[in-house]
Design a protein that fits this description.
Strand order of the largest sheet: 1-2-4-3
Distance between the termini: 93 Å
Order of helices and strands: HHHEEHEEHHEEHHHE
Largest sheet: 4 strands, antiparallel
Structural class: alpha+beta
Number of strands: 7
Helix content: 40-55%
Number of helices: 9
């Protein structure tokens, strides 16, 4: 009788342990889930009425570019150096100066090609001020000017690692005009884009001069001179770039 009773106690104890273990397993809290990552896109600073008045650009000009891009205009600033004095003597202070307006678009080349002739007649230059290679829309900018090289001056285009300042780049570009006339269609801090008015007679010679002046175009870009020539023919233009 005692053995039967003892057996019952053993079975009851085992069952209780199983139930207790199952209950503990069910009641164990789940680890907190990491919140989903959200990317907040900053709202663009649109061109205000005060800025439009300060620029003095024809309203119909701005409206035409906005319509072509399908987006509203944003202010475009040039970083300029103002003279100043401090305890160490004369120095300079960088400030942003409103000199134009920009729009974001995925049709930068088409807009520049269609509007550039008309804007130039009115004393304005349109160019790609930032290329994003399809990941996000490019930035197309309009400023006052009649000379393509004004674009490089505004953008402060240079290649310090190669010893070229803006003036040196402009000198090189002017020397190429006699070989194949072109207009500048884009510029950034370390990049220049151009479209041919008349294509080069000697593509290889022109490509070799690009490679000598901006080797990153081939070394980190096309890979070969032959591929660079193919790209120039396809785009009817060329670009310079320094890493």
């Amino acid at each position: 009788m005692k053995s039967v009773t003892a057996g019952r106690y053993v079975l009851f104890g085992a069952a209780a342990c199983i139930v207790f273990s199952f209950a503990c397993t069910r009641e164990k809290p789940e680890p907190p889930k990491a919140p989903p990552i959200r990317f907040i896109k900053p709202k663009p600073q649109l061109l205000t009425q005060e800025q439009r008045a300060e620029l003095g650009f024809p309203p119909e000009l701005i409206a035409r570019v906005e319509e072509a891009a399908g987006t509203e205009a944003e202010p475009f600033f040039e970083t300029v150096m103002f003279p100043a004095e401090n305890l160490k003597g004369r120095t300079g202070i960088e400030r942003n100066k409103l000199v134009g307006f920009s729009v974001h678009t995925k049709q930068a080349e088409e807009i520049i090609a269609s509007l550039s002739p008309v804007l130039r007649q009115q004393g304005f230059l349109i160019f790609r001020s930032k290329q994003n290679y399809g990941s996000v829309p490019d930035v197309v900018t309009v400023v006052r000017g009649k000379n393509s090289y004004d674009i490089l001056k505004i953008q402060k285009t240079e290649a310090p690692d190669f010893g070229f300042n803006t003036k040196a780049i402009i000198v090189w570009l002017k020397a190429r005009q006699s070989e194949a006339p072109f207009v500048i269609t884009g510029a950034d801090a370390d990049r220049v884009e151009a479209r041919f008015i008349r294509r080069p007679r000697n593509w290889t010679a022109f490509a070799n001069k690009i490679y000598a002046f901006a080797p990153d175009v081939v070394d980190q870009g096309t890979g070969t001179i032959e591929r660079l020539i193919e790209l120039m023919k396809k785009s009817n233009g060329f670009y310079l770039w320094w890493d």
